[in-house]
Design a protein that fits this description.
three-stranded mixed beta sheet, 2 domains, UDP-galactose 4-epimerase, domain 1, single chain, Rossmann fold, 40% helix, alpha/beta, 320 residues
Length: 320
Amino acid sequence: MAWLVTGGAGYIGAHIVRAFGAEGIDVVVLDDLSSGHGSFVPESVPFVRGSILDRELLERTFAEHNVTGVVHVAGFKYAGVSVQKPLHTYEQNVTGTAVLLQAMQNSAVHKIVFSSSAAVYGTPDVDLVTEDTPKSPESPYGESKLIGEWMLRDQAHATGLAHTSLRYFNVVGSGYSDVYDTSPHNLFPIVFDALLGGQAPRINGDDYATPDGTCVRDYIHVADLAASHVAAAQRLDAGESIEPVYNLGSGDGVSVGQIMQTVAEITKIDFTPQIGPRRAGDPARIVSTGERAARDLNWTMRHSLSEMVSSAWEARRTAQ
């Protein structure tokens, strides 16, 4: 028996794969390598190259590897780009999830952990986001994740699908020197690439109503995130009660200014960030509680900001 990790060759997915391995749970990876890397997948883990839009491939994979559950991480994850590519986003994230759920139903696979996003909340007007905070996504990406949650809910009503969705904001750090964030749209890679190129990173606005004037966000370590995906799968395997959604949040957050200061300390590169204008739609603060996940999914912030930055920096330098 094995769990299928879709998108398991990506930055987050690869950490989830290795977290399963650390618990002695067999996994198989399916990834089209549109943004993932085959080198991120351990040699001991079966790897199927292909798309979640290919139902026949999914059903063969389920049968050949005796798959009993799915961790669904695959998807188009760039919120900003999704505004320019809405149809592509919906095809990958909505149609793809529908095809996956159909393949699961056809193959009698009845357990799924869905990698959702705090983008479903849009710009909340509360200091601390909970699972019950109203949903108001502001991009096709956020909308597609919310639709994915709805599909799991409706399939559960129709077929008894056992499921949960994990929502989170900014994932950083690295648990392994050979797995790192390669997204051109995420803060840490952008900052590191600028520094390695001899340029000063940029902060978008320093006049917000926050302690240092820069935006405050949840930043969580990818290894902590991966551990909770495994805990959710184990709970489903054991037939234990589970909530339909969980936030994986820090409860307090850190500012972009704090991150820049920590990056300077860790990299020992002295720089003064460039200050640009605010980005449209950027709220001053978005921070989530993780209390429900702490109760059920072994969620906790095991890594400090310094550890997040240092682990990400070490992995990025190793990749040079």
